[in-house]
Amino acid sequence: MSKPMFAVDEKFVAFYDGSKPREASVFGFKEVGGRLHYQIRFTGFSSFYDDTIPVGEESGKMIKGTMKDFKRSQKEAVQAAKSRQSTEGPSTSAGSLAGLLEPIPIVGFNWPPLLKKVIALDHHRIHQHFEHQLPCRFTVDKIMEEYLEHFATLPEVTDDGPTNTVLIKKNLAMVKRMFNAVLRNFLLYKPERFGYNDLLKENAEENKVEYQCVSQLPNLPASELFGLAHLLRLFANFPQQLKNLKLNNAVINHTIESLQGFMDFLEENREKYWQEDCGYVTLPSYIRRQLSANGM
Fold first, then answer.
1. What is the pLDDT of residues 82-130, one digit of tens each?
2. Are the beta carbons of 267 and 112 closer than 8 angstroms?
3. CA 26 to CA 16: how far, in whole Å?
4. At 35, which helix (H) or strand (E)?
5. 13 touches 65 (CB < 8 A)
6. Which CATH number fits domain 113-293: 1.10.472.80, 1.10.274.30, 1.10.238.10, 3.40.50.2300?
7. What is the pTM of this model?
8. Residues linked to residue 63 through DSSP beta bridges, in sequence order
9. 142 CB burial (10 A radius; 0-12, 13-18, 19+)
10. Where is the composition biased (Polar residues) (predicted)?
11. Cα 280-239-194 angle, rounded to 5 deg
C-alpha cells in the first residue's frame, strides 16, 4: 500500500479538472473503494469544489510548493529550454525535442477571495430581480484609466517603465476589445438580457437604425456602460477566451501574469468600484409582473 507523500494542512498545486493548476491543501484522508484518498480543498474556493486524489497517484496531479513556486519553476523551465536551444543549436532527435514539445499547462489568475465574493454576490442580486443601473458609476473604461494612472506611480516600473507600460496598455486594450465583443452573448445573465436589449432598441431608435429582429441591433460599447462585476465575469473564463484567439499556452500565461497586478488593484479598490447595496435597480419586468398580480 502506497504511503502518502503529502500531510494534512500541507499546501501544494493541484490540477483542477485535469488541466487547471490551483493552489490547494490536504484537509484529511478517506477510504474510497478500499483505497486511501487525499481529501483536498482549493485555496479560496468553498467546500463545494473539494476533490479526492488516490494516494499513489500524486504524479502529474499534485506538485509540492505554492502557486508562486509553481509559476516560477515553469518560467525557469521555459527559459532553460530556450537557453539550451540557443547554445546547442537546432536538433532533430526525438529525445532532445521531447522536453521542448511538452505542452506548458495554462496557469490562471491567482484569484483574490474578495473578488470571488463579488461574482457570487452579484449573481445572487441579479437572480433576486435586480439589474445594474447603467452606466455604472465606475465603468470598465474608467477602472482601466485609473489603473494606468496607478501603474505609472509604481517604483519598480521606473527603470524600464516604457516597456512595461506599453505591455500593460496593450493587454488592457485587448481585454477591452474582448469585453465589448463578448458581453452581449456571453457575460449577461438571462434576467439582464431583456434590459440590455431594450437599451439597444432605444439607441437604434435614437439613431434611426432599422432592424428586423433583436440580433440585428448594433452593439453599444459595453466598456462605457458596465463595471467591475461584468469585468470579473470575463476574467473568470479568461484563459479559454485567450485560447479561442489561437494563442499558445506560453503566451496565454505571459498575458495573464502581466495582468495579475490589475487583478490585485481591483481587489484593493473593490469597495470603491462595487458594493452589494449600491448600483442596482429592480428589474422593470418584475415590477410589471407585481403590478399585474395586484390588479394594477
1. 665 555 555 444 444 444 444 677 778 889 899 999 999 999 999 888 9
2. yes
3. 14
4. strand 35-42
5. yes
6. 1.10.274.30
7. 0.63
8. 13
9. middle
10. 82-94
11. 30
